[in-house]
Request: fold
Amino acid sequence: MAGALEGKVVLVTGGGSGIGRATALLAARQGARVMIADYVPEGAEKTVAMIKEGGGTAACVAADVAVTRQVEDLIQKTLETYGRLDGAFNNAGIEGAMAETIACTEENFDRVVAIDLKAVWLCMKYEIPQMLKQGGGAIVNTASIAGLLGFPGIPAYVAAKHGVVGLTRTAALEYAQKNIRVNCVCPGVINTPMVQRAFDKGGMREADAIAGEPIGRLGKPEEIAAGVVWLLSDAASFVTGHPLTIDGGWTAR
Ligand SMILES: NC(=O)c1ccc[n+]([C@@H]2O[C@H](COP(=O)([O-])OP(=O)(O)OC[C@H]3O[C@@H](n4cnc5c(N)ncnc54)[C@H](O)[C@@H]3O)[C@@H](O)[C@H]2O)c1
Reply:
């Protein structure tokens, strides 16, 4: 049976770790040729090696997606490598410092918004023209349950992720008639290096995170990957502008 992404070229930003890596691996298993972008080249190279070991097709580019020139180059290299771009998972992100509103520094606020919000717009800005040329495409951005609810101690992150939901809905409306679907995923607390860092920084206790999840455990990166691959696939052909919560029931409370 053909994979859900057979014949498609898919770009994954932040593909060197966590949710991005799990999605790159699943996309490749579902038949996509994958381009991985990360500003930590070793992580991206490891994901490429893992995909190749599994018989898939992958390449990577070292890029900071918060820098315009590097995003332009990334799209250019994807086209040089594979000749097209059918799907994009704009997922690279950082957690930033854990500090409530009055303690959050301007530097932290600017850095988090630059990577978690502005870079998502920048990626779409350079991905969509190629999709328009090809006559269609699918984009999935990574928001968060922090894009739907407030979380004390991470004001910049919450603001950025709310912004991603808004950007997603707007781009979805702008390109709905051009055969380009734009959705986002809103993960709950997923067991990745980012979340382990948040536990280590003391911004969140693991026991509280587990207690927040009605399902009673942290999510796995593969559980987000499954939703992203579905949204990128033709099986989701009537889904656009949707923030898909994959959160163990967190936002059902
Ligand atoms: N883990 C969670 O619980 C959770 C929950 C909701 C949303 N998210 C979001 O999911 C996404 C992935 O997070 P994760 O948990 O897999 O984290 P992670 O730290 O394991 O992976 C993030 C990857 O993004 C890369 N990256 C960061 N900034 C970058 C930049 N400017 N340019 C290029 N690459 C960059 C990092 O090097 C890393 O490889 C993030 O947007 C995060 O905010 C995570």
Remarks:
- The radius of gyration is 17 Å.
- The chain is about 45% helix and 15% strand.
- The chain has one domain: 9-187+228-245.
